[in-house]
Amino acid sequence: MPRTVWCWWDRGIMTFKVKDFYYQKAKKEKFLARSVYKLDEIDSKFKVIRKNDSILDLGYYPGSWIQYSSNKVEQNGEIVGIDIQNISTELKHLKNVKLFKKDIFEIKNLEDINRLEKFDVVLSDMAPSTTGIKCVDQDRSFALVEKVIVILPNFLKFKGNFVIKIFDSHEAQMLIKNEIKKKFASLNMFKPKSTRSISKEFYVIGKEYLGT
């Protein structure tokens, strides 16, 4: 039987089964995390990633989004993954992938990651260390998203695509409405079915970056 974890939340106790369907599916299909199916759903619906794209994956570890993207862009595409975790040895065999152990917010320019051009796509599945306390986790997520939006012009090409994970809150909704929406020709909010039901996370998908 799968192990059940008890999580204190602001309105009582909720449970989720750690080794759920998507966990088992990822293990069987040799993906490094269940989150690969979130990106699969996003990409299938919104056509974010194309053959030959260059992609920047922020906070890539453990690397399931890297695995998906590497296959999708094929051999002439390129993926750059950045994370403060040690470089994943399980991704080193991927020929079109470059990994860096860096803090993305300390990168001053593209040369710091051996790039001359901006990216066609920027992905961010980053999340703060969670506490199980709704207001704290929302605040931490919001601060992280704000920082990504600030640095986005340094990395994303004009008319490029963008995916970022956000924990829902009033402040997050206002940021989307007042800031992020203005930066893209089209913007969508989406919660993949592979997201755990108790999770407050969703994804913002921006298409055709306006360069602002």
Please explain how this structure is put together.
With 212 residues, the chain is an alpha/beta fold. 27% of the residues lie in helices and 29% in strands. It has 5 helices and 9 strands; from the N terminus they run E-E-H-H-E-H-E-E-E-H-E-H-E-E. It has a 7-stranded mixed beta sheet with strand order 5-4-3-6-7-9-8, with helices on both faces. The protein is globular and about 40 Å long. The termini are far apart. The relative contact order is 0.15. Mean pLDDT is 89; it is low at 1-18.
List the helices and strands and how they pair.
Blueprint: E1 4-9, E2 12-17, H1 21-28, H2 36-46, E3 54-58, H3 64-73, E4 78-83, E5 97-101, E6 119-124, H4 134-151, E7 156-167, H5 170-180, E8 184-190, E9 201-209
Parallel strand pairs: 3-4, 3-6, 4-5, 6-7
Antiparallel strand pairs: 1-2, 7-9, 8-9
What distance separates the N and C termini?
Answer: 51 Å
Largest sheet: 7 strands, mixed
Give the strand content.
25-35%
The top-level CATH class is: Alpha Beta
Please give the number of β-strands.
Answer: 9
The shape, in one word, is: globular
Number of domains: 1
N-to-C SSE string, H for helix and E for strand = EEHHEHEEEHEHEE
Using the 3D structure, state the CATH architecture: 3-Layer(aba) Sandwich
What is the count of helical runs?
Answer: 5
What are its keywords?
single chain, 212 residues, alpha/beta, Rossmann fold, seven-stranded mixed sheet, two-stranded antiparallel ribbon, globular, disordered N terminus
